[in-house]
Amino acid sequence: MQKHAWRRWAGLAFGAALVFGSCSLMAQGPYHLQDRWKIGGDGGWDYLAVDPQSGLLYITRGNHVMVVDTAAGGKVVADITGLKGTHGVAFDTDGKTGYISDGASNAVAVFDRASNRITQTIPAGTNPDGIVFEPATRTVWAFNGRSKNATVIDAKTKQVIATVPLPGKPEFPVADGKGSVFVNIEDKNEIAHLDAKSHRLLAEWPIGCESPSGHAIDVANHRLFAVCEGKKMAVVDATTGKVVATPEIGEGPDAAAFDPHTHNAFSSNGEGTLTVVHEDSPDSYTVLQTVETQRSARTMALDAKTGKIYLVAAEFGPRPAPTPENPRARPPVLPGSFVVIVVSR
């Protein structure tokens, strides 16, 4: 996921003024920027996730995961260390266990949600990135970006029970709670449908948009939301693979969410906007609002209980000159500039 944002920042900076000018027409709406918590810390970031039981916000920050108390004004209450290159966090429905995809270690770290301490490390494929807990089979699925497969872990035994080949490079996965897992295949512009019980690839669905990254699901209406380059969200029927709508979103998206209470889908865009798309019906969608956030706020997490959306962003210094060892050097995060942005209704 991280590569999407890093390669876009130069272009996003150039277009920011144009974006915000057009967004002003849609700025009025039910969502607004409620707060901004400066929590600092060095380095970049990737996925973030809200614990559905505790409401704590988990933010992957390279070699560690920051744990933020959203009820205490953004106070950092724990830091999960001993990792190398984190990407995502998933939560077991037992309310006790969490899982971190540690891409640089080619492993999944198991942690205790009460103490926020790592209890076990499970080998995975090469560079596990997106990760999801599948409740019907009580399995954890870690999607390995470089080996193009999925590592399936039994949540009870904490053992790998399958390795599932994929048709291309996986990005973000979602589960329907009934035994199906869906994952964006970034380099083939499609969604793969997987059976969690048999560990088989059931279907590949072309979705007609480039480099799908963020992914969300409306379980009740069987709809998938994949956000892509080209300012497009593909809304896909999760039973047939048919694309039913393609609402326009912002530039540089890297995460998606769906709130079943409001029937709103969200796209967090690296240009510095949050697109709110309303589900008028399962096959009809309207862009409800564009909320200005902050440039680089490309990933987010939705708190299903409160409806609040958390995004993260930072300020950056000049991009270093390329070298043979590092031809695509990333611009450094300015010290102390990392923030959590809170959007609410």
Features:
1 helix, disordered N terminus, mainly beta, four-stranded antiparallel beta sheet, about 350 residues
Helix/strand layout:
Layout: H1 2-23, E1 32-38, E2 48-50, E3 57-60, E4 65-69, E5 75-80, E6 86-91, E7 97-102, E8 107-112, E9 117-123, E10 128-134, E11 139-144, E12 149-154, E13 159-165, E14 170-175, E15 180-185, E16 190-195, E17 200-206, E18 215-218, E19 223-228, E20 232-237, E21 243-245, E22 253-259, E23 264-269, E24 273-281, E25 284-292, E26 300-302, E27 309-313, E28 339-344
Antiparallel strand pairs: 1-28, 2-3, 3-4, 4-5, 6-7, 7-8, 8-9, 10-11, 11-12, 12-13, 14-15, 15-16, 16-17, 18-19, 19-20, 20-21, 22-23, 23-24, 24-25, 26-27, 27-28
Give a structural overview.
This protein is mainly β and 345 residues long. Helix content is 6%, strand content 48%. The chain has 1 helix and 28 strands. It has one helix at residues 2-23, and strands spanning 32-38, 48-50, 57-60, 65-69, 75-80, 86-91, 97-102, 107-112, 117-123, 128-134, 139-144, 149-154, 159-165, 170-175, 180-185, 190-195, 200-206, 215-218, 223-228, 232-237, 243-245, 253-259, 264-269, 273-281, 284-292, 300-302, 309-313, 339-344. The strands form 7 sheets. A 4-stranded antiparallel β-sheet has the order 1-28-27-26, with no helix packed on it. It has a 4-stranded antiparallel β-sheet with strand order 2-3-4-5, with no helix packed on it. A 4-stranded antiparallel β-sheet has the order 6-7-8-9, with no helix packed on it. A hairpin with a 4-residue loop joins strand 16 (190-195) and strand 17 (200-206). The longest helix has 22 residues, at 2-23. It is globular and about 45 Å long. The two termini are 28 Å apart. Residues 3-26 have low confidence and may be disordered.
